[in-house]
Design a protein that fits this description.
The chain has 189 residues and is of the alpha/beta class. The protein is built from six helices and six strands.
Length: 189
């Protein structure tokens, strides 16, 4: 499978490279575009200020440009938190998308979004301050309305970015369970 894996607002950090290596080890071809052009962040304030300074439109433009050379192959879009939101936006706009793997995040869905049974898998903490129960219920219904085939996995007690071993949110048990399920999902595509 050809996978485009987007980083979180922390930037393209070692955890993203490790995830890409894990996916490559399972036989997938993976690209990890750097939407922040080498910048990484440690604090919430820094990363949010940088993201807002660049702007959503510019970041989406960078993501589209990163996907363009590979999209004819039929991509699985994937990402972490902010990167998951980016992946979702691109997958819902790409009629050749093969799947969507969301780790720790979702995004708004355009009313006009329409896909033909796009396989989608979401992994989130429970609770997650960025992915509340009400939000996820509405998101699930909207994705179904758009034509996606959605699976949601929740991990009780895990922090928001629980797959990143360098962050306080890290939860080894939840992370390993996520990767087991996600790799199984990718095998079905």
């Amino acid at each position: 499978m050809n996978i485009l894996l987007f980083h979180s607002t922390f930037g393209l950090r070692p955890a993203v490279h490790a995830a890409a290596d894990r996916l490559r080890g399972a036989g997938h071809e993976v690209w990890t575009p750097d939407l922040f052009e080498g910048r990484t962040f440690e604090s919430v304030e820094e990363r949010m200020a940088f993201r807002d300074e660049i702007g959503k439109e510019e970041l989406l433009k960078r993501a589209v440009l990163a996907a363009a050379p590979h999209s004819e192959r039929g991509l699985v879009y994937a990402g972490f938190s902010f990167g998951a939101a980016t992946a979702q936006t691109l997958a819902l706009g790409d009629d050749k998308a093969r799947g969507l793997l969301l780790l720790h995040g979702t995004s708004d869905i355009a009313e006009s979004a329409s896909v033909d049974e796009l396989p989608v898998q979401l992994h989130v903490a429970e609770p997650d301050p960025f992915e509340t129960d009400d939000w996820l219920s509405a998101w699930y219904l909207q994705m179904g309305k758009a034509g996606a085939d959605v699976e949601i996995y929740r991990y009780a007690g895990a922090g928001h970015l629980y797959t990143d071993p360098s962050l306080p949110d890290y939860d080894e048990e939840a992370a390993e369970a996520t990767w087991r399920v996600a790799l199984g999902f990718l095998e079905t595509l």
